[in-house]
Amino acid sequence: QAELSRLDADAQLAGMGDLERLKASQAVQAIASAPSRERPGLIYIAEQRVRAAAAAAQADALAAQSMALDRERDQILVDASRREAEAARREAERLRTQNLARQEEAARLVEQAEIERTARAETFALAEQARAEAEQARRLAATRAREAALAREEAELASALVAEAMAADAPLPPSRQVGGATVYTLAGSAFASGRATLNTEANASLRRLAMEIGGRSLRIVGFTDSQGSASANETLSKRRADAVAAILKESGASGSIVTEGRGAADPVADNATAEGRARNRRVEITVR
Description:
This protein is α+β, with helices and mostly antiparallel strands. It has helices at residues 2-9, 18-33, 39-116, 119-169, 200-213, 230-250, 274-280, and strands spanning 175-178, 181-187, 218-223, 257-261, 282-287.
């Protein structure tokens, strides 16, 4: 009864887990009217119901908090978009007014040159007009350069946000325990044939792995199947190991990293079959 009362008195959990609270209250009330021989069992049931009610209330409170944060984030994004749109409108209006002013100035200079009808005044007007046009072109070029830089920054930010979201949901590569270390295996299908470029899924999986390993030491070894020359296979396997290391470093892995390419050495399956060759094409990441 005391635990249930404390739960009911918690203002932060008010209105949360109502169904479980009702069950807990009923279980507590059942104790008072039960025969003494049944009370131990009913007390146990009541304790479990009270704990369940507390857990349900906390879960509901966390869910409500999450929804509130989502709404706040959405409002922030909407407000930011409105501000950006208003700033763009003001800038466009400023440029329009500026352009009109320059056109009027150019027309005035032409008219003045025509009225004066002197070669010197005409030369001066043409020179002034050329200077104004050059200044306008310079400013326009600077504005466009700033806009291009801002667009690049926004694209990079959007790309980073997408990569983070994909990494959070991506599965880790398959792993096994070897002694005191964990060995993750990235299949050869993570790369295009004969290349060291990771596909999108493998990239996201490695970013997720970087979140997990933090500052631990890594040894990254690339392997190929037995097809092709030994030299080419060793080079390709080393390039793939280096590509994996680069993604992990970029994604937050801060410990020491050693890479190696072993080509067709240490096969884990028979290279005589397509399935076996596919298993042998891999990159192993040992985490200590």
